[in-house]
Amino acid sequence: MTEQAGSDQQDGNIATTSGDYSAVYYHSHLGPDYTYEEPHWQRFFGAVADSLIALFEPQSCYDAGCAKGFLVRELAARGADARGGDISESAIADAPPGLRERLEVRNLTDPFDGRFDLISCIEVLEHMSAGDARQAVANMCAATDRVLLSSTPEDFAEPTHVNVRQPAGWAQDFAVHGFFRRTDIDASFLSPWAVVFERSEVTRAELVAQYESFVTSLSREVLEKRRALLDAQRLVNDQSAPALVESAELRQRVSELDDEVRRLRSADVLADSAAKLAVLDEVIGLRAELAEAKVDQETYAEPLRQEVAAAGSIVATLTRQLAAARAELGSRPAGSGAFGSSRTVQEALAAKEAEMKGSTTWRAGRTVLGPAVALRRMLGR
Questions:
Q1: What letter would DSSP give residue 179?
Q2: Would you give the distance in Å from CA 90 to the centre of its chain?
Q3: Domain range holding 52?
């Protein structure tokens, strides 16, 4: 709900004003969209209204710091004469027809007009300065015998929360006016820190008894929950011990496997390196043999080339001689010459060729040309 501004800035307290609660504030500080159509707020304030009607059956209600009047709308829908007021002119102006008539722009430091069966004040006092909040408490206590109060004890981040206090502080302010906590009512349907204060003419003895009963019940609940928590912790410890041992063993096994993987990877690297060195050594050996072969080839090839050249010269000479002999024989008349008349030219040529092949020059050429032909084939030339 919306906070109320005050007039005691001069005493060192911080106060907020109506302008601090414009449309921008409602758009950015209250969670889900703060609109009449938002289902979240309809459900929330509807549930609060149901609880208040069930607990107190109020005929008249006033929501002090009502903002846009969501709770007023829900209470009125359930048959209560519900009203509300807020310092924010922007919030009141947004109310739709039918609801707008139930709302008013009001500073809670001003006295109420009339009395009510129930006044609710939801997340309002922490927005007011300390002095203004005390005055608002006094005005509410003067206008009703029952107040439903919720004021956060822990939200210091909200910029307009200028007076965040613990519940005991608010209880003390209400006690000054004869209002005390209803220890038999659980108001957590509104918030974890919500309290119902009622006017009561109890004696001090009765009041002590009420609070002691309330505190004792809470103390027992806390002890039981602590005992249950301790038992649960022990159970967890007992069940976790074997798992911790198994976990330690598994971690040790994982560590051993990691070491084994590293060892195997190292062995693989060494074996791979050895294989590469063996291949490299073989390649180097082959390259050495190849180089040696090239040297041998170059050493023996040149003399052979010279012999081939010489043999080629001899063959050329013999070829020329053979051609000359053939030409000479071809120019002679048939039946004349040194070969006798019974021989033909072909016989003469064959005889001449046989004579040449039987010569020393022909045999020398064949001797030289034989290795040369083989070398040519080897060298691919």
A1: E
A2: 42
A3: 9-201
